[in-house]
């Protein structure tokens, strides 16, 4: 299970949209618990939003702390860093936790992202 999660994070870091999408199911749910996040339901909706997200975040890097597995679920505490291009390249670093659900076929069917949008806003405000 951690193989697909590792591939997914690697693909995000590489800004490789096709590789990211190859890791998720057609009914993939991308849920954000932070006020600044936007949920996406379905692979098509995620595919439509992903290029714009990646284009806004130069040098995007998810650095996983560990992989915690429990059956079909995995939790991955991470540090995400990037330069926010819409704000002139402001550097941001924030901690968060992904909780993934892996479908029986071995792809990710759900990603819940826990992160602090207030901390991101604070860093962007400088």
From TrEMBL:
One Pfam family, short name: SnoaL_2
**Listed InterPro entries:** NTF2-like_dom_sf, SnoaL-like
The SnoaL-like domain extends over 5-110
- The protein's name is Nuclear transport factor 2 family protein
**Organism of provenance:** Kineosporia corallincola
Per the UniProt record, the lineage of the source organism begins with:
Bacteria, Bacillati, Actinomycetota, Actinomycetes, Kineosporiales
